[in-house]
Structure prediction request, 149 residues.
Amino acid sequence: MRIQRKGPQGIFEADLTPMIDMTFQLIAFFMVLINFSQSEQNQLIQLPLSELAKPPRTPLDFPITLHLTKSGSVFAGGMEMSIDGIRPYLTQEYRARLDSGMAGEDIPVIIRAHKDAETGQVQKLISRCQDIGLQNFKLRAKEEVVGNT
Prediction:
């Protein structure tokens, strides 16, 4: 006696819709991650030119980014504040990084000062950071490209 198979016979095709959907979700996720580096810039800040400015070789781990405007106000964490009023923000960021396991002297502070900002304002901002315990400072400038003529 011969056993007959019941049901459709032929080529089976898998439904690829869930896999395509997941692929697009991953692409969107990575695009959002990449755009976070743009949030560390402020269009009000025009960096000074420097022949010695070089891009960092490796990205910094969890830096605190401060934008000093020409008028002396500071943008940090999406908020505008005075140099004298930045202490609560710095304390909060400092504690958050200590809680994540970073050593206090290893927490990088990036200062992006406008090219026309007074040097005394930059020094005052660094002093406020040092009052909290921050010591690792990186000053940003535009790299001056010298053309071949």
